[in-house]
Amino acid sequence: MQYTLDTLDRAILAALLEDGRLSQVQLAERIPLSPTAIARRIRALEESGIIKGYQARIDRRAVGLEMIVHVFISLQNQSEQRLESFEAAVAAAPSVVGCQLMSGEDDYLLTVLARDLADYERIHKQELSRLPGVTRLRSSFVLREVKAATIPASMLGTPAPRGSKK
Amino acid sequence: MQYTLDTLDRAILAALLEDGRLSQVQLAERIPLSPTAIARRIRALEESGIIKGYQARIDRRAVGLEMIVHVFISLQNQSEQRLESFEAAVAAAPSVVGCQLMSGEDDYLLTVLARDLADYERIHKQELSRLPGVTRLRSSFVLREVKAATIPASMLGTPAPRGSKK
DNA sequence: TATGAAAGGCCGTGAAC
DNA sequence: GTTCACGGCCTTTCATA
Fold it and tell me: Hey, are the CB atoms on B151 and A62 less than 8 Å from each other?
């Protein structure tokens, strides 16, 4: 996955971040390149794993998921085996949409989606309390989502300088 | 935006969450509906705001963004005006990709993307330290992303029962 | 009111240059 | 990287239940 993105690649990525359904022709209107050349670059970006896929952005609340809860978790110890079994359990928990190993006081930060408080109680009982090796578990509720973005186009501006060519 | 999703709508949403570029014909192969009917439903979902858009999923690290940092923030007080000016500043901070008003000890949880530690130092200086009204600011680094999902298809299963019809 | 079928125009794909 | 031709998809219209 050692791939050097040029300005055109980054323009394509920026456009597809904004609208993942843009056609080659539409992209060619923004980017000084023929539709075919754009298609080839997109294919290369997909095959190299830089573009991991495409997805619809769906309104959480429209599908009844009113709550986001962050769960801070500390484990008994951080042995390899502890982490592995914990992470395997997290991977199988359907309501846990995010899990990050963290620096600092707690070991993991989980992100959970729930319909409402009663649903979160169920998730807490059925999914979270069964996670192995947990010593401390603290729930923190999102009261309001102020900003929810993906990678901003501005951060595609300069590639990681690992031997810039061209 | 009071919209009652039926089973077919949810099947369409689930499919477009997995692959946002599926064509009507491809969707019609999975869902017992003609391409025309699917196109009409998708259009309705888009116009009602349930589908907010489409985007490419891009490998963070491939574009040089190696770090995710969570920043916990406490404000001097939670007056309406304080919150508003803080949130306006956050909205204008390009490296801050997430901001949530939280319950519990801290007021806000920010999510920041950075190229590396030096880049985060710059962001800390240029973007974070200038946020108005902050009394406490604690950075917590993501060591490893274990799970990063969107809304799982399983959670589309049952709509929020607000007067189920049909 | 929502679906399904058919026709026309546009797009995506792969060839050659 | 571009141009061109072909096959398939998206769109619209219309008939139907």
Answer: no
Residues 30-59/B with CB < 7 A to strand C = 32-34, 36-37, 40-41
pTM exceeds 0.90, yes or no: yes
Provide the residue type at A67 as one letter: M
- Please give the Cα distance from A6 to A11 (Å, whole number): 9
What pLDDT score was predicted for residue A159? 53
Residues of chain A with Cβ-Cβ distance to B98 below 8 Å are 147-149
* A55: nearest CB among B20, B87, B91: B20
Q: Looking at CA atoms only, how far is residue A132 from chain B in angstroms?
A: 16
Run of H or E residues at B84: helix B80-91
- Give the separation between CA B112 and CA B109, rounded to whole angstroms: 10
Per-residue pLDDT at A165 exceeds 60: no
Residue located via tokens 């963004």: B65
pLDDT digits (tens, 9 = 90+) for A90-104: 999 999 999 999 999
